[in-house]
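== Sequence, structure tokens ==
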Amino acid sequence: MKLAINLILSFAMLGLCLWLVWPDAGDRSDLADAFQKLEWSEFAPYLGIYVGLMVVSHLFRSLRWNFLLAPLGIKIPAGPLLAISSVGFMAILALPARLGEFVRPGLLRRRGISASAALGTVAVERIVDGLIISLFVFGAFFAIRGPGAPDWMMPVAYTALGIFAAALAFLLFAMKQPDRTVAFCIRLSLLDRFAPRIARVIEAKLLDMIRGFAVLRDVKNLTKFCAWTIVYWSANGLAVWVLAQAFHLELSLIGGFAVMGLVAVGISLPNSPGLVGQFQWFTLLGLSLYLGPEVMEGGTIWDSVAREMGAAVTPNSLHITALAYSIVQHLFQVIWYVGMGALGLASPWVSLNDLRHVRDATPEPAAPPAAP
């Protein structure tokens, strides 16, 4: 039932965001013109810097996982960890409703750790990510607050920060009081009344998952993880800003981090397949804070009618440029993560057969360490 609800929400998000950003016939023509006017000689240097930042971002995002696994006695060489992470990131992008989050934990089974415990480390990763990105968003939004700021801006910043701070507090409590936390969750779900056998299975898995929170009491590894996470998100923010310069958008560096943060918060909701529409709409929303509300003002059905009647319609060039930027950035992200995932599957450390068994919960005997 929960999966069905998540899938419904995911496809509803796809429909909503596509409806919000889908250009009318006139805007599609203007978009085509905008892409044709891009000069490769001018665009290529920005693209080179963008790809370099993506390399930094991907490496730090992938390899920092070892700091979460270390308190569980797991150490994975860089090559296998990069392959496993790359396939997992591709799954997160491709699958709706955040289903891809289960792929990386499942791929660790061959290395002597249960999927449930590995999923606990992913939960810590997601919440620390959310807390850091919420701080980025809060700082950026706080800097531009004032009478001209939209009403939704600061409530969104406070809400995102509050949700992830509360989630971190919950993880800390669960780590210190695992039995009480799991018992509370089981009682809240009513499974102990209606399906006691299933409740016992879930209870065991939840207790195993809480093992993955161990890094929260390991100051050394947690500090290293947070440092690598800041580098990862900083490279992401710089990449957003660099690509905006390629499209001649007058976006400040702080604005680049704000756009990145708003997109990151937005896609933490039930994601549409491939983040289609969702990525573009949140990008435009972030740009509108720094470039003006006309960024969100695309062509309407009345513009299309006017064009069909032969009337002149002035295109919103800022909206067209911003939409082109959001489409290209999303396209690069898709190409990057699908490409890295394909390389991971082509490596000796991850196979399609491994993907078919990611739902298996019990750990296999630890394999000998693979060569990096």
Notes: The chain has 17 helices and no strands. The radius of gyration is 22 Å. Confidence is low (pLDDT under 50) at residues 300-314, 361-372. The chain has one domain: 14-356.
